[in-house]
Specification:
The complex is a heterodimer.
Chain A: E1 10-21, E2 24-36, E3 41-45, H1 52-59, E4 67-72, E5 75-76, H2 82-92, E6 93-96, H3 108-116, H4 125-131, H5 147-159, E7 165-169, H6 177-194, E8 197-202, E9 213-218, E10 221-227
Parallel strand pairs in A: 3-8, 3-9, 6-7, 7-8
Antiparallel strand pairs in A: 1-2, 1-4, 4-5, 9-10
Helix pairs in contact in A: 3-4, 3-5, 4-5, 5-6
Chain B: H1 3-14, H2 16-53, E1 59-67, H3 69-75, E2 80-86, E3 88-94, E4 102-109, E5 121-125, E6 135-139, H4 140-146, E7 153-158, E8 161-172, E9 192-198, H5 199-205, E10 211-219, H6 225-236, E11 245-246, H7 251-292, H8 294-302, H9 307-347, H10 359-386, H11 389-393, H12 405-408, H13 417-428, H14 430-468, E12 473-481, H15 483-490, E13 495-510, E14 513-522, E15 531-533, E16 537-539, E17 546-549, H16 550-556, E18 563-568, E19 575-584, E20 592-595, H17 596-603, E21 609-616, H18 621-629, E22 634-639, H19 640-695, H20 699-736, H21 749-775, H22 779-784
Parallel strand pairs in B: 4-9, 6-8, 14-20, 17-19
Antiparallel strand pairs in B: 1-10, 1-11, 2-10, 3-4, 3-7, 5-8, 6-9, 7-8, 12-21, 12-22, 13-14, 13-18, 13-21, 15-16, 17-20, 18-19
Helix pairs in contact in B: 1-9, 2-7, 2-9, 2-10, 2-19, 7-10, 7-19, 9-10, 13-20, 14-19, 14-20, 14-21, 19-20, 19-21, 20-21
The chains are: A alpha/beta, B alpha+beta.
Amino acid sequence: MTLQPSGVAFSAREVTKVYRMGEVEVHALRGVDLELMPSELIVLLGPSGSGKSTLLNILGGLDVPTSGTVWYRDHELTAADESELTRYRREHVGFVFQFYNLIPSLTAVENVALVTDISEDPMDPAKALDLVELGDRRDHFPAQLSGGEQQRVAIARAIAKQPEVLLCDEPTGALDISTGILVLEAIARVNRELGTTVAVITHNVAIAAMADRVLRMADGRIASAERNERRISASELGW
Amino acid sequence: MLTLDRKLLRDLSQLKGQVLAIGLVIAAGVAMFAMYSSTFESLDHTHTAYYDRYRLADVFASLKRAPLSTASRLEALPGVAQVEPRVVVQVTLDVPGMTEPARGLLLSIPEHRRAILNDVHLLRGRYIHATHPDEVLVIEAFATAHGLEPGDPIGAVINGRRRELMIVGIALSPEYVYTIAPGDLLPDDRRFGVFWMGRRALSSAFDMEGGFNDVSLALGPGASSEAVIADVDRLLERYGGLGAIPRRLQVSAWFVANEMREMKTMGSILPVVFLAVAAFLLNVVLSRIISVQRTQVAAMKAVGYSNREVALHYTKLALAVAFAGGVLGVAVGAWLGRGMTSMYSQYFRFPEFQYFLSPRIAVVAVGVSLVAATLGAFGAVRSAVKLPPAEAMRPEPPASFKRGWLERSGLTRMLSEPGRMILRNLGRSPVRTLLSATGIAFAIALLVFGFFFVDAVELLMKAQFEEVMLHDVTTTFVEPTSAAGRHEVERLPGVLYTEPFRAVPVRLRYGARSRQTAVMGLPAVPRLNRVVGQKAGVVELPAEGLVLSSSLGEVLGVEVGDRIFVEVLEGRRPVRTVPVARLVDEYLGTSAYMEIGALRRLMREGAVLSGAFLKVDPAELDRLHTRLKATPRVAGVSLSAAAYESFQNTIGQTLGLMITINLIFAAVIACGVVYNSARVSLSERERDLASLRVLGFTRAEISFILLGELAVVTLIAVPLGLALGYLFCRGIISALATELLRIPMVVEPVSYAWAAVAVVAVSALSGLAVRRRLDRLDLVAVLKSRE
């Protein structure tokens, strides 16, 4: 068994993923190596079908690679079984999806409570909503909220369990600029104030400027990695 | 409350239409179970308590005449605890205001104390006085039928002399819970009554002083009735014993037991079908809910809910529906059970027929519905939790369509584009299509079953009254008599034709099995009382050998050609071996027949007859009745028309109600299945249909696509349902067959047609309900939402 390098949040080696979509076999990942540091905010850039989401899902324990190894701190995710992955997600990971994936039959605060119900040391759902500046809309159902508000509820839901990792899959993909910026500000604030390791995937190049590090993906591989000299705040982004 | 449970409640309220439909199907199944089981338990409890409290005997024996001292010898037999000798005689009654004669059975009771065994329960009036020999108690059913009250007189032809008896009490007896005249198959409270009369008075009227002709015995704990019966028969043989029978075969007890068996069978088969359908519906609906909530499942898993928690969440939905349906079902079942019990009390007479639904039944009923729901949920939930969250997050891949054989055949070229969509969509998931069709087929099958009962009972009655009993009147002589008796009957007013019969009490024995019955001697080709089989049709009696009803054949375990022992229980009591010449699949009873000449040869007797069947001129009926009442030689008269009428009034009513209940429940299933199928396909196709509307299709056109699918599924279901219904009826009749009754397998074409038409109509109504939703389809909202 290889030892996990100390001080690294995530470490992935030679990760490949092949899955079937209907009648087509898709090679989503073709050998990815990656390391993520604690409290780091990275942005994964790439066109549709480049494997960003697959990589993020594997890091989040939602999916397992076809080959390769993935470590989260001292957990080898690729050796974990179904229930260990569930526990990993429950204890360490917060997810934000492009289409929010809120439960439509639950109000904003209830959507957050869905997570705090099963967490060991959660924050108060109302406080999590305050953090994304939605305290006054807590009793609205998703259908009564705008897209940006829904996404912020999703962020509140993701951070309410105080996760060590926040994984965001195209969090602004369905939003206009100004709403998108509100959402990104919320994500940056979580990274800054709670020290959460954050990975954001997007095909929007402009967003890269808010990251510590930018990874570009193409055709199932990491094509390049660069470190930003200066992170700019989300409110300064423009696209 | 956990947040997930809050989601559950909101999901339930959103799905209320479908939830209601499934809940009602479950409720129907549970109601049937609760109704039959509780009525069974109430009847079981009531009759057991009654038998115990009024000391119904364990063994019954009739004989010609034995001295009273024989009673103490019977008491000394091993296993016998108590003995109650009595005098039992059949008389013709003259009831005020009734032209036709009625039959009465007079039983002796002790004057100074209550009977040790088969005690009566006095409803009104008082017990007889020793000093008034004409006082009698009358059974309540007969009293009610004639409005008789204590203080009313009644005439009886006793030993050839008309005598006025005085009713002093109205009574019930555990021996006559179900009151039926000897040899009859149906109760007739107007024309048959049981009376209790002081022992001394009855004995002296029939020259039975110091003797008895009937005896009841109670057994000690652990005694075997077979062994006691063998001893009793040996002891009573020289007193003309007619063969002792155990309580199990005592007429009333036998009827009650048969009825209870039927109830148990119905109560265990029907609910299973309903709950299976409900489980199936839950499976379909849950699968659909889960596939609609695919991304919600993914989100739950992504935030850390385990497979078990997700599975439990959806299973809870099924359990909630099942619990509500179960509770409703128990309530409805209790209500129906109460009604059924009160109907039973019309012909099962108990001092107190207490209906109760035990907590055990309620718990089992709800428990069973929960189990059914869990089974139904299992498959659907399993596939939901199996889905890896990442995959669930992606929208479902476009369904893979292939050009099936149907299209390659070129048939679809004749269809429009929407027509092709219908076919492809159905062909894409043939299993699903077949399952939906199966659900609807179940509804059709249940309706077929409901109608089948109507057909079967009708056929049974038609067979009994139009093929078997072609006579108008049966006369039975006090004693087997010579040809002179027949002439006497022939000379009665209005008699057009007579057919003699010879009935000989026997015990048939084959190996270790035996049955006490009577062999009916009839002409080789009977004209007024024919032997008719379900398949065999009208049967001629062979010159030699016995013809047995198949059920009696089964009781004895005999086949055609087997030689069985016939122990005659009257006269010189010969024992002979006779071959079984034929088994006939009769509808009713356990009968044995012989050609009358063969039977007389077996008895080594001349032209003796026990009675005659009469064909009568209807215009002369009244005169005939009057004469029959005053004919000492005739002990009993029974009338076919009266039997039919009384059947209609009692069992016919009960059956009618049960059939109505079955039909209502079948309709519930039909609605449940069809409405759910329509709703499920609507929610599956909503987006497609909305897209088509955006492309410019009209409401009528998209309705055609959706309802066309439903129509095709319904059409597939019709033949399937009819076939299933047929098999279902077959299954039920073999489960329901009792010694008393074999229900014929007959479903009239018109019943099949009704079943199919009813379900197609329900289908159309559900289609319309869904069509209304389709018309209100919010195009923008449907296309925007990803779910």
